[in-house]
Design a protein that fits this description.
The complex is a heterodimer of chains A (322) and B (429). Chain A has 322 residues and is an alpha/beta fold. Chain A contains 11 helices and 9 strands. In chain A, the strands form 2 sheets. In chain A, strands 7-6-5-8-9 form a 5-stranded parallel sheet. In chain B, helix 4 crosses helix 6 and helix 6 runs parallel beside helix 7.
Chain lengths: 322, 429
């Protein structure tokens, strides 16, 4: 039975975790993202499916890029977008997260985009407010829109990621990007490999249905794409790895290392990059293999698709309530 | 000496194979090509022959722990003085380990030491410092030090107090399959201790650590080794309780090894009786029951290696009241004789005494030497097992004289030492 033969509405009120999605949800999101991706390349970018809705970007952690991406996505769909950086305001005055969330909810927004340093904070806010919440990165747990945009960028170049061998290398332990990607790429049928020094791998990573490596040259062999993760500065000074130069020596992605991968293998990085730490600058700038700027472009389209789906769901719920 | 020579008419003692029999060894191109009863003077033509006159021929010693002093220390132990002293002690491989003043904690230092030790006649691999300045707070560049040739990593005499750092260190080092040598001492209980808690320390008011401090440390290290898969080398075990903890860990199948200082096998707290600062050591002198347990552990194979724990110190560093005197003793020249004295006392069998300084450390670390095998490096020592002598540090080759075994009577000493087929020491007296 084809898609055209039955009716399926995107059933989710919020996007908190990739684990909540089924393959059909993902397919719908990627199809809509593809539509907006095309639209975003025209001079006629502004549309109005979210007209009348209010989107609050509630960022408890600083993030210029993700916040800008969500802001553009909302504005291009016609929503009223307000950025609310909390690190500098309420919590500094001692307000609890629940009070901050309820205060904002009292302003009747429709969509909350939440980033917070605590894993599970977006779920907490969704529960407290009953609003539609998009997880824009929570602690070391998930970053669902990043995984969706990575899948989108990969699909654009590889066709289908099903059956492809994809390596994620770097600080898996602290990475919400890695966790969301493992869930999503598994859902799409990719073979996933993880590679990190033993200090930067969760103890039970081998139970995630992935292959685990400590040696990058072994891990990279035969891969169709390699995603390298950002290494936070504070983790480079001897607690988890001894130094930047040692990390680059053993885990830095270079053209030479990529030779062991499949011909034409792609390189991804969620940004912002540390050149010369997790990736060699020359590789990052190589348009033949590097998807890094494609990822940023895909980010806006994917977030538009997510906002659109959740916005439609909000309207449907509203109609039902009447 | 030619590229091809033989030592004949010897008593071959090779702990790796359990061999103890009359015979000889044929050496060619730095390696052992033939050995056993078949190697005799009469069937060797065009070969330089050394007649051992029945002396013991064994693999040259491997000592996993010796220190040097910072470069340009007036009167200090240099790499060349240490090499000469080690060769005289029958040592063919001497691992230079880190100390606070010489922490060996960067790949640059490890590489520079490699260049400096290469011309030496004794093989002198380096144990890199496991944490920066050995302070136990941040990991050193273990991977780059490994690339630069470090044989293992060690945190010297300093226990690592922070358990998170220790976990990271063992976990990280496991990727390089590097042994991490760690002193088994509880950082808090052993801080400032100059003796073992007991009657002697109590009477004399010496700050002391309980023996349980060692057991706790070994149990902690074993638990973290189990968690991380890291290779833990217990760096100088010295108590009966510690040995029991080690035995439990080994029975669990953990990758855990242990060394013991030869001083802990020869001395006990009674030797410290006169406040003689040369007896101020790390680990501190223990009880006689601990010493006896340690000797038994050698026979049982629980301890993998015995080290000289050579620690050259200036007269000034030792000229302090006992608790304030620097800890450590020289030892490369007496490692073998010390072990032989236990053999003469009937406490150890010769083959067991030699195992912990040849195949024991070689198998632990993965070295090709330390055994008599076709193709093995021709690192050999010829020993007069019975010659009596009295050790006087002043007559030795080490630059320092802080010897805990000063004036000790020994039976058995080195005649000749060979490394890679080259004779690096001969005792012509």
């Amino acid at each position: 039975m084809g898609r055209a033969d039955f009716h399926y509405d995107f059933p989710h009120r919020s996007l908190l975790s990739i684990a909540d999605l089924n393959p059909l949800d993902v397919q719908m999101l990627l199809e809509r993202a593809s539509h907006w991706h095309g639209v975003n390349r025209t001079p006629d970018k502004k549309h109005d499916p979210l007209k009348g809705l209010t989107q609050i970007n509630l960022f408890f952690e600083n993030s210029t890029r993700t916040q800008a991406s969500f802001e553009l996505a909302g504005k291009r769909l016609g929503a009223d977008v307000v950025n609310f950086s909390v690190s500098a305001s309420s919590t500094a005055k001692g307000e609890t997260l629940a009070d901050t969330a309820r205060t904002l909810a009292a302003m009747n927004p429709d969509l909350l985009v939440v980033r917070h340093k605590a894993s599970g904070a977006p779920d907490f806010i969704a529960r407290e407010t009953g609003l539609s919440v998009i997880n824009a990165g929570d602690g070391t747990r998930e970053h669902p829109t990043q995984a969706l945009l990575d899948a989108f960028a990969l699909t654009e170049r590889l066709g289908d990621v099903g059956g492809r061998r994809i390596l994620i290398v770097g600080d898996i332990l602290h990475s919400r990007v890695a966790r969301s990607n493992v869930l999503l790429l598994s859902l799409l049928g990719a073979q996933i490999r993880l590679c990190a020094p033993p200090t930067l791998l969760p103890a039970d990573a081998d139970r995630w249905g992935v292959e685990v490596f400590h040696d990058l040259d072994d891990a990279i062999e035969g891969c169709d794409a390699v995603m390298t993760l950002r290494l936070q500065k504070e983790r480079m000074s001897g607690g988890y790895i001894p130094s930047e130069r040692e990390y680059f020596r053993f885990y830095g992605l270079t053209h030479r290392r990529m030779e062991a991968a499949q011909p034409g293998a792609l390189v991804l990085h969620p940004g912002p990059m540390n050149r010369g730490v997790e990736i060699d600058g020359a590789l990052a700038d190589d348009e033949e293999v590097s998807l890094i700027l494609d990822q940023v472009e895909a980010g806006v389209a994917v977030r538009m698709a997510v906002l659109e789906m959740l916005g439609e769901q909000t309207r449907r719920n509203e109609e039902r309530r009447r | 000496m030619s590229q091809r020579f033989a030592i004949v008419n010897a008593r071959l003692v090779d702990p790796a194979s359990g061999r103890d029999e009359a015979g000889g060894v044929l050496v060619e191109d730095h390696h052992i090509v033939e050995f056993g009863p078949g190697v005799r003077g009469i069937n060797l033509e065009d070969v330089e022959v050394i007649d051992a006159h029945g002396a013991i021929l064994a693999p040259a010693l491997i000592d996993l722990r010796a220190g040097i002093e910072p470069p340009f220390t007036p009167g200090g132990e240099t790499i060349s003085s240490l090499s000469a002293a080690a060769a005289a002690g029958g040592i063919g491989t001497l691992v230079l380990g880190p100390h606070a003043a010489t922490p060996f904690d960067t790949p640059e230092t490890v590489r520079a030491l490699g260049h400096e030790t290469r011309p030496m006649r004794v093989r002198m691999p380096v144990a890199g410092g496991a944490t920066r300045s050995l302070v136990g707070e941040t990991m050193s560049e273990i991977g780059l030090m490994h690339d630069a040739g470090a044989l293992l990593v060690s945190n010297g005499d300093a226990p690592i107090a922070d358990t998170r750092v220790l976990r990271s260190l063992l976990s990280y080092a496991s990727h390089f399959e590097a042994w991490v040598a760690l002193r088994p001492a509880d950082a808090c209980l052993s801080a400032g201790a100059a003796a073992t808690e007991g009657e002697w320390a109590a009477r004399n008011g010496i700050p002391a650590e309980p023996t349980v401090a060692e057991r706790m440390a070994i149990e902690r290290l074993a638990a973290l080794g189990e968690l991380t898969g890291g290779r833990v080398l217990i760096d100088r075990i010295s108590t009966e309780e510690g040995l029991e903890a080690l035995s439990r860990a080994k029975r669990k199948g953990l990758e855990i090894g242990a060394t013991a200082s030869v001083n802990s096998l020869l001395l006990n707290e009674v030797d410290a009786g006169g406040y003689d600062a040369s007896m101020r050591l790390v680990p501190p002198l223990r009880f006689e029951a601990d010493r006896e347990a340690l000797v038994r552990a050698i026979t049982e194979g629980l301890v993998d290696a015995v080290v000289s724990d050579h620690r050259p110190l200036s007269v000034e560093a030792k000229s302090e009241p006992w608790p304030e005197a620097a800890a450590g003793s020289t030892g490369v020249e007496t490692l073998l004789s010390g072990l032989l004295s236990l053999v003469h006392d009937g406490q150890l069998e010769l083959i067991d005494a030699l195992r912990v300084v040849t195949s024991g450390p070689a198998d632990l670390i993965g070295l090709p030497q330390g055994r008599m095998e076709e193709g093995a490096p021709a690192d050999l020592v010829l020993i007069d097992g019975d010659a009596p002598w009295v050790y006087r540090a002043a007559d030795g080759l080490s630059a320092r004289r802080n010897a805990a075994l000063e004036g000790r009577r020994f039976q058995g000493r080195v005649l000749k030492t060979f490394v890679a087929g080259a004779m690096i020491h001969t005792n012509d007296n």
